[in-house]
Design a protein that fits this description.
single chain; mainly alpha; Cyclin A, domain 1; 11 helices; 60% helix; cyclin; Cyclin_N
């Protein structure tokens, strides 16, 4: 697998994060994580940064940071900007500090109304680097999705739609804590599985029959992955989407 195990946690750990210990409910923490990633995406797109890899890397940095720090101590809007600042450098799509700050002020004038924001951003970047132990290598599910999709002998146009939908699900997953629970390979397989299911393909794309009755297509890519594990991943993404839709309708 592609992720160092020290960047993966058990579900129980996510119920006892520093923010939870500080009195913030899990529901509120999840909301703050979603809002932080949404701001990262909106600010990033405003300065022409792509989700894969820069905004995705910023989102992973964001989620990892709050496994060691609280939202009470570090408001998500400034830390989100710091994650975006660092991710731009890591993924060789750097943006000037002053340009990021100006974009943030334009997009979110209330949250970024303070003075000396450039100095604060540089300081937060240093704190972020220390928190993530200067480990800047991040892999995402996107490349694995493309790699795995090549193994299916299906209609080209149809498979293109399957991959496009799965890619969108990966984008949506950035707002969840899945990157703290699962390797990117697992997330890629699970959301490819969801894309097939939503296309009413069931669990048996062409080629499965050749592997034997006890073998599923995903066994080729990730061993010991059960349907229940994939369903849990899919439901986490769908729950996040339904929560966002409810928030937008109120």
């Amino acid at each position: 697998m592609s992720v160092n195990t020290h960047w993966l946690w058990n579900p129980e750990d996510l119920e006892n994060t520093p923010s939870v210990q500080a009195g913030i409910s899990m529901a509120e923490e999840n909301k703050l994580r979603r809002e932080g990633v949404r701001m990262i995406k909106e600010m990033g797109k405003a300065i022409n940064l792509k989700t894969n890899p820069t905004l995705a890397t910023a989102s992973v940095f964001f989620h990892r940071f709050y496994m060691f720090n609280t939202f009470a101590d570090y408001p998500p809007h400034m830390m989100g900007l710091a994650c975006l600042f660092l991710a731009g450098k890591v993924e060789e799509t750097p943006k000037k500090c002053k340009d990021l700050v100006q974009t943030a002020k334009d997009k979110y004038p209330k949250q970024f109304a303070g003075k000396n924001l450039m100095d604060e951003l540089i300081l937060l970047e240093r704190i972020l680097l220390q928190t993530i132990r200067f480990d800047l290598h991040v892999e995402h599910p996107y490349n694995f999705l493309v790699q795995y999709a090549k193994g299916f002998k299906l209609d080209k146009d149809y498979m293109s739609k399957i991959v496009t939908n799965a890619w969108t699900f990966i984008n949506d997953s950035l707002a969840t804590n899945l990157c703290l629970l699962w390797e990117p390979e697992v997330i890629a397989v699970a959301l490819l599985y969801m894309s097939f299911k939503m296309a009413r393909m069931g669990e048996g794309p062409e080629g499965e029959a050749k592997m034997g009755a006890d073998t599923k297509w995903w066994d080729i890519y990730v061993q010991n992955l059960t349907v229940q594990m994939m369903e849990d991943i899919c439901h986490k993404v769908l729950d996040c989407l339904s929560t966002d839709e409810s928030s937008n309708s109120t």
